[in-house]
Amino acid sequence: MLTALFLLMFFGLLVCGMPIFLVLGVCATTLFLWSGQPLIGVASKIVDELNSSTLMALPLFVMAAAFMRRGGVARALVDFAAAWLGGVRGSLGLVTVLSCALFAAICGSSVATALAMGTILIPAMLERGYPRDFTLGVVGASGTIGIVIPPSLALILYGIITEQSVPRLFLAGILPGILQATVFVLWVLYYAHRHNLPREPRASLPQLGRVTLQALPALAVPAVVMIGIYGGVMTVTESAAIAAVVALIVSLGFYRGFQPSETLSVIADGIRSGATIMIIVATALAFGHWMTESGVPARLVQFTLDHHLKTWEFLLSINILLLILGCFLEVAATLLLVMPILAPALLPIGVDPVHFSIVFTHNMEIALVHPPVGLNLYVLATISDAPIGEVIRGILPFLLLLLLVLGIITYVPELSLWLPHLIYGG
Amino acid sequence: MALWDRIERLLIGLFGAGALLVGTYQVIGRYIVPQYASGWSDEVTVYLAVWGIFLAASQLVRTDGHVRPDLVLRLMPARMQRVVETFNCVVALVFCLGLLWFGFHIVADAWDLDERSETVLAFPMWAYYAAMPTGAALMSLRYIIRLYRYLFRFDPATMVIFAPHEHKPS
Questions:
Q1: Which residues from B are below 8 Å from A241, CB to CB?
Q2: Least CB-packed of A117, A321, A350, A359 within 10 Å?
């Protein structure tokens, strides 16, 4: 009964459009009151949870992303991909897949990717006679690949909430990410062949060299992170700090996306984007602590056992639940809302938390392009002045491909788990 | 108001820049020039970043930047949105005032007990804890302004959320 009332309050507040940090804070406070604890506990829990060096990886990575967004990195990546892929039929489509994946990997948000890349790539593709629905679909869908490519904000958050090793999660995301990119590339090649899309002129050798040099600083950011973490020298937080500094230097000194005098205000913008997540993380951790004691996760486990739910049936229902939630909320918000409830239930039901992290993030990507309310759809409609129906028509084939990939990821755990097991052992 | 904004933004920028500098210094000290190695950079990065984050939380109230699921809200008529938003403001205000009140007690206790961090730096913890009541106080002020606007200065053209594909009436 109490559980039902509690869940009612939780979802009721969400429906009211209350900020997520408040919903979690209010729920944590209620749980505190129930268990008869003094309320000062909520406040001290929040401020103590924030006092963590690991957690600071988040605002630092978000700052790196903010610098890259302001720094004019998108153009360099598009030129780079276009020069290398020029000779292939439908090459601009492939350029989109590649450069969106790279950009999203750097900035960690597929909505920002759709915005930054869409404004450059959509006009270019339309000019070369690509059908508009296909153009919109390719841009909208490609940004979602980045969410599993390190440094993935979603995976860092997941690691913090569920106490999993972040480098391990990064490794788990690599093969599924490659699978998704391959499926997209094959589809674009097939589509280009059928609709006889144009090739682009091949780039000359010196041009190729120049464009690659131009893109190197942008590519340095993920490279620094990978080397730092897997070289075993830096912690995730330290590599985040270095990534932010490198991103700042690259955008300021190399691409000149903003003036030196604007540096402080760009940093402030970066902290602001970081704060949107951090304030939720702080309350989510306080909330998660009491969630475990409230018995809701235990009930969830009991429910699946009572109804003889198989692991795959559990995963399927979670997939559907996440697709619905993801239509309303951003990736980070959904993660912080759901994982405190799900995390304690995973192992008893027989789901590997590392495998689940990939299922989860993939689910979130789909939700972003899922009609009728995926966030990416509206971003694309806004920047291209296309009716929303056309965007949906264009994204539909990609959505089917994404669902196919989701099925494979969900029911072939080895795809996610093989690489981390190989490197770190079982 | 404009001055308040500018000071807030300046401070956020300074705290952020400070966190970046100290973080870089730490990496340099640990891996490149060992004689600069320090036992305090880890925690100072955290303190600076958290101060920046709590100040930024106030900015986020001003710009309505706190993440929230507004889909259902978007479908409501303007009058209904006003009621729900007023409710949201009141809840937010109560929560922030609570954080301010209890946060203040946490700071006062740390001050009285002279609580220090367990490192060579022995950083006075009240200076870190103070970030929360400060942020909560600023957020409370912002929410009072927001509440006032919804109650007495309601203007559907700017304060109602529209579906993104619709155009706001101008």
A1: 19-20, 23-24, 26-27, 45
A2: A350
| Each residue's pLDDT expressed in tens, for chain B with a length of 170 residues | 788 989 999 999 999 999 999 988 888 887 777 776 677 888 899 999 999 999 999 999 998 888 777 777 878 888 889 999 999 999 999 999 999 999 999 999 999 999 988 888 889 999 999 999 999 999 999 999 999 999 998 888 877 876 554 544 43
The answer to whether the Cβ–Cβ distance between B65 and A272 falls below 8 Å is: yes
State yes or no: ipTM above 0.90.
Answer: no
Q: Residue A43 is nearest to which of B50, B59, B99, comparing CB atoms?
A: B99
CB-based contact B30 A245, cutoff 8 Å:
no
Question: For residue B159, which residues of chain A lie inside 8 Å, CB to CB?
Answer: none
Q: pTM of the predicted model, to two decimals?
A: 0.80
- Under DSSP, the state recorded for A16 is T
A111: tokens are 């909505």
CA separation, residue A263 to residues A60, A116, A221, B17 (Å): 15, 20, 18, 9
Is the CB of A17 less than 8 angstroms away from the CB of B70? Answer: yes
CA-CA distance, B66 to B89, in Å (whole number)?
A: 13
d(CA A51, CA A48) in angstroms, rounded, equals 5
